């Protein structure tokens, strides 16, 4: 790894990166020229969504917990303007970071373009979409079994529903979100073949108002459990649930009961969350890069069995689930863990989405 540079050079490079939306140094700095410091940058459009981007950002904290002063971590907020994403990745590469964490379906193309230009820098795609594109010799790509996340959430929703009607609010209607939703419908259907599932899409990952209105419409149709799978827009699901009697919400990506603890009216609607453990995935992948064991040019999908995804089983969840309900959830989710149940994957086979949708909307 490169020797840590002087404070002056770091400041100059940081100034250049601010033009892309700003940086946040998570690890402090050292001017001891005899100490090798691993410099890691994480590029995200923004943080503060209390969901997907925030749990990804927490990966930097986990790295600091493990590596301490041996690692310097920097968050680079690129903004939501897509034209800035390639620029941000290129400036990070020119700044001399040893490991650049970027990617996901929104901007992996920008990352991969830059990665091809800087073969000596190691890139981690923290949530790849296109496996074939992530085959460069300096890129390691990980992702998460989103269909299994959906399945776990669907099982809980069906177990907890008293009306036999549940909802699913997605951000964008694309293959990635349909992967979540198909799993959700399958999990609910496995528990209750007579379940009715209402699925709708916001068309945005930030429009809370639209998500709230969609959720209220589902509640008016009888839904008493609604899964918000829409990033920051998903908070609108919790607002709607908080204004409705007898309605539970389910969060996504991070434990949203915890992340929204400063807003108890919203947090108290969240029975559990389907966890996409991007922070743990980043820690494990960066560790593999540091140890020289990362299989560059390949992609790894982290599953329930890998502890890459799961359910938030916090005290609030346990307090609001009966022993019988918990036993049913365990019965169905354990089958995914052991491989007895194969969860349909609408990302690999888009046709399964329409098939399961027909079963739960008949």
Question: How would you describe this structure in keywords?
Answer:
Rossmann fold; 14 helices; 13 strands; six-stranded mixed β-sheet; 2 domains; 362 residues; seven-stranded mixed β-sheet; alpha/beta; globular
In brief, what are we looking at here?
It is built from 14 helices and 13 strands.
3D architecture notes:
By secondary structure, this protein is of the alpha/beta class. The protein has 2 domains: 138 residues, Response regulator (Rossmann fold); 185 residues, Rossmann fold. It is built from 14 helices and 13 strands. Helix 5 runs antiparallel to helix 13 and helix 6 packs parallel to helix 14. The longest helix is centred in the middle third of the chain and has 17 residues. The N and C termini lie far apart (59 Å).
Question: Terminal Cα separation, in Å?
Answer: 59 Å
Task: Estimate the helix proportion, in percent.
Answer: 40-55%
Output the CATH topology of the largest domain: Rossmann fold
- CATH class identity of the largest domain: Alpha Beta
Total strands: the figure is: 13
User: What is the overall number of helices?
Assistant: 14
Q: The biggest beta sheet, please?
A: 7 strands, mixed
Structural class: alpha/beta
CATH superfamily of the largest domain: Response regulator
Secondary-structure element order, N to C: HEEHEHEHEEHEHEHEHEHHEHEEHHH
Our Rg estimate from Cα atoms comes to 21 Å
Architecture of the largest domain in CATH? 3-Layer(aba) Sandwich
Q: How would you sum up the global shape?
A: globular
Strand portion: 15-25%
Mean pLDDT: 91
Strand order of the largest sheet: 1-3-2-4-5-6-12
**Low-confidence segments:** 1-21, 28-34
Overall number of domains: 2
